[in-house]
Amino acid sequence: MSNSDNLLNLKNYLTQVIIGQERLVDRLLIALLANGHLLVEGAPGLAKTRAIKGLSQGVEAEFHRIQFTPDLLPADVTGTEIYRPETTSFEFQKGPIFHQLVLADEINRAPAKVQSALLEAMAEGQVSVGRQTYKLPELFMVMATQNPIEQEGTYQLPEAQLDRFLMHVTIGYPDAGAEHKILALARGDAINNEIPPPETQITQQQIFDARKEIMGLHMAESVEQYLVNLVLATRDPSHYDKELADWVEYGASPRGTIALDSCARAHAWLQNRDYVTPDDVQAVAHDVLRHRIILSYSAEAQSINNDQFIDRLLLAVPVA
To answer: Can you give the residue range of the structural domain that contains 94?
Structure first.
């Protein structure tokens, strides 16, 4: 069975245990294949935690959940040195960040020091304590969640730290049909007391092999130029639309270009294609660019949000 078939089976499994959130499932798989991290924003009860738990069931990997609270300390995430009297020495006790799949639940509930400790580990793939540096697992993905309501007692993530996330995904409520399926699934879970595991798990090596295949997909020069033009237009859209130029203060960094490329490739690969099209770029553009754009006061005064800016940007920038 090919790697694409294995990932398709995993996708089918996830859509069976996570009802009404197909887009979240797609983005989880794209982040896994593109070797990045995911920031998910949505109201409580929309299966954010269940999604990454289901992913951990389908992948041969260890999962850990960290509940972020105002009294959390950086050492509670990364780990700390413990003194051993029997050896008169300090021994590093690894924290929950040393797992392959990590859920950072309500990341905006923790203060800046804790957020920075997590985001540094995400960016560098390692944790430094004292004079020692400890490598994180080769397969390592963080899914952080934040609640768009009840902003009292929260600490907003700075834009520079938001840039560390591959994608920022917003999710909404399921429709009536999905709600009935969720009820039936919840009754089954109450009987089984857990998410049912899949028949087979995907190994870490299969994920690494899939990542190599993805980076080998063909991207025509015209598609690459279109991708670059989109990112450049977030910084200076005046060549395409004068009003857009008044709406934006700061655009996406080169990290956004790299993220858009890797996500578009992963999206094409999940569609079982060996080439990338402009449709793949457009399909992931909102999630890749949403958190990398800072709008101007003029845009805020007109109640323009980032998604509306990206919508108009996609209409303005011609496909090469």
So the answer is: 3-192
The mean pLDDT of 80-91, rounded to a whole number, is 82
Question: Rounded to whole angstroms, how far apart are CA atoms 96 and 40?
Answer: 20
- Give 81's strand partners: 92
The domain tally of the chain equals 2
Identify the CA nearest to 55 among candidates 195, 159, 165, 174.
195
Compute CA 82 distance to the chain's CA centroid, rounded to the nearest angstrom.
33
Nearest to 72 by CA among 111, 127, 29, 130: 111
Residue 234's closest CA among 293, 161, 278? 293
Q: Is 215 exposed, middle or buried (0-12, 13-18, 19+ CB in 10 A)?
A: middle
How many residues would you count in the chain? 320
The model carries a pTM of 0.91
Residue 162, burial from CB neighbour count under 10 angstroms (0-12, 13-18, 19+):
middle
**Is there a single domain that holds both residue 59 and residue 15?**
yes
DSSP H or E run through 235: helix 221-235
14 and 138 in one domain?
Answer: yes
Q: From CA 163, how far away is CA 122, in angstroms rounded?
A: 11
pLDDT digits (tens, 9 = 90+) for 41-60: 988 888 888 888 889 989 99
Write down the residue that tokens 């697992």 correspond to. Answer: 137
Give tens-digit pLDDT for 193-202: 567 778 788 9
Give the span between the Cα atoms of 119 and 125, in whole angstroms.
Answer: 10
β-strand pairing of 63-67 with 101-105: parallel
Q: Which of 120, 118, 109 is nearest to 156 (CA)?
A: 109
Confidence of residue 224 (pLDDT cuts 50, 70, 90): very high
